């Protein structure tokens, strides 16, 4: 009796095979993604503007730089009168009777005359006239300093903001100090000096140069040109008229309406409003009436219309 050869059972783990060029597919995918990246970056990218520095400001608008430096010297600038966290010149913005900034107090003390004018001039080699002007100013009484800066401020105002057209007067060493500071700024050294005044090894704290720039009008004018001002929905724009952080529209919206758009406490009011709205959103399930809105406005039936149609069919 002969035995029939048994037919081998198929291997359950064998799914067949076919030629596959992994290198070719990787190359095609890489080239396709690279081309798409270049196209999208060209069409949708925002401009890569050069960083704004104090040197650029001093060279482009020396009159505004000098006027701002004078306001730092006589402590009338925005930073000098801001209050906490920089000084005690004011209580800062309030939310009703509550002065929010005072809760933390002065955590980043800034004496604008020292930080922006006197210390940078002292830390750099100066000519004899500048050194003499520094000594004259620092040894004078506070009243005498205020007289000099006040007279020079009035003179600049009469000269339409142009220091080169200021009439002669009792300004003491103030013009000499501001001219020397302008020279340092135009040379580019003032940027580095403000970064190193904190004493930190790593120069990553840009608070001082940013506040100095913000106290002048040059930065604000550039922000307006690039559609970054508060009344231009600037917080949700990229540089230029490009859409940016669209999720900030609700926060930015409040700055466009009264009373937020003209209040001295605008930032605090917007923060308080957003805090209330956020809490309302978090506690929606616990607020009577508000939690029942979906039941009375049956948008869910439109979304689940197929489900409700099937229910009616079964009935």
Q: Could you describe the 3D structure shown?
A:
Helix 3 (62-73) runs antiparallel to helix 7 and helix 3 (62-73) packs across helix 8 (174-187). The chain has three domains: 54-223, no CATH class; 226-282, no CATH class; 285-314, no CATH class. The relative contact order is 0.09. The model has no long low-confidence stretch (mean pLDDT 88). It is mostly helical and 315 residues long. The protein contains 16 helices and four strands. A hairpin with a 3-residue loop joins strand 3 (237-238) and strand 4. 53% of the residues lie in helices and 3% in strands. The chain is elongated and about 120 Å long. Strands 1-2 form a two-stranded antiparallel sheet. It has a two-stranded antiparallel sheet with strand order 3-4.
Give short descriptive properties of this protein.
315 residues; mainly alpha; two-stranded antiparallel sheet; 53% helix; elongated
Describe the secondary-structure layout.
Layout: H1 22-44, H2 54-60, H3 62-73, E1 94-95, E2 98-99, H4 100-104, H5 112-122, H6 128-139, H7 142-158, H8 174-187, H9 189-196, H10 207-215, H11 218-225, E3 237-238, E4 242-243, H12 249-253, H13 266-282, H14 293-296, H15 299-303, H16 305-314
Antiparallel strand pairs: 1-2, 3-4
Report Rg: 33 Å
Q: What would the principal axes of the Cα set say about the shape?
A: elongated
The proportion of strand residues reads: under 5%
- The number of E-state strands comes to 4
Instruction: Give the H and E element order.
Output: HHHEEHHHHHHHHEEHHHHH
First-to-last CA distance = 70 Å
Number of separate domains: 3
**Class inferred from helices and paired strands:** mainly alpha
Largest sheet: 2 strands, antiparallel
Uncertain segments are: none
Number of helices in the DSSP assignment: 16
* Fraction of residues in H or I helices: 40-55%
Task: Return the average pLDDT rounded to an integer.
Answer: 88
- How do the strands of the widest beta sheet line up side by side? 1-2
């Amino acid at each position: 009796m002969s035995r029939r050869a048994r037919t081998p059972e198929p291997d359950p783990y064998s799914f067949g095979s076919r030629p596959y060029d992994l290198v070719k597919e990787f190359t095609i995918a890489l080239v396709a993604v690279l081309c798409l990246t270049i196209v999208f970056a060209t069409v949708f990218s925002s401009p890569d503007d050069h960083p704004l520095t104090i040197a650029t400001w001093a060279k482009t608008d020396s009159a505004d730089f000098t006027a701002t430096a004078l306001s730092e010297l006589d402590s009338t600038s925005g930073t000098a009168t801001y209050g906490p966290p920089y000084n005690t010149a004011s209580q800062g913005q309030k939310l009703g009777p509550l002065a929010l900034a005072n809760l933390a107090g002065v955590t980043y003390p800034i004496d604008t005359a020292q930080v922006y004018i006197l210390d940078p001039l002292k830390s750099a080699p100066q000519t004899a006239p500048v050194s003499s002007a520094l000594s004259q100013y620092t040894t004078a009484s506070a009243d005498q300093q205020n007289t000099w800066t006040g007279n020079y401020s009035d003179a600049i105002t009469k000269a339409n903001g142009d220091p080169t057209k200021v009439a002669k007067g009792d300004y003491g060493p103030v013009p000499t100090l501001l001219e020397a500071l302008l020279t340092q700024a135009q040379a580019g050294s003032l940027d580095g000096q403000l970064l190193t005044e904190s004493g930190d090894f790593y120069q990553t704290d840009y608070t001082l140069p940013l506040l100095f720039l913000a106290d002048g009008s040059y930065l604000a004018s550039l922000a307006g040109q690039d559609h970054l001002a508060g009344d231009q929905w600037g917080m949700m724009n990229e540089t230029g008229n490009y859409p940016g952080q669209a999720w900030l529209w609700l926060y930015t919206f409040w700055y466009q309406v009264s009373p937020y758009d003209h209040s001295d406490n605008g930032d605090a009011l917007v923060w308080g409003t957003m805090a209330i709205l956020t809490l309302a959103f978090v506690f929606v399930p616990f607020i009577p009436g508000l939690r029942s809105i979906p039941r009375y406005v049956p948008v869910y039936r439109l979304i689940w219309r197929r489900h409700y149609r099937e229910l009616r069919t079964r009935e």
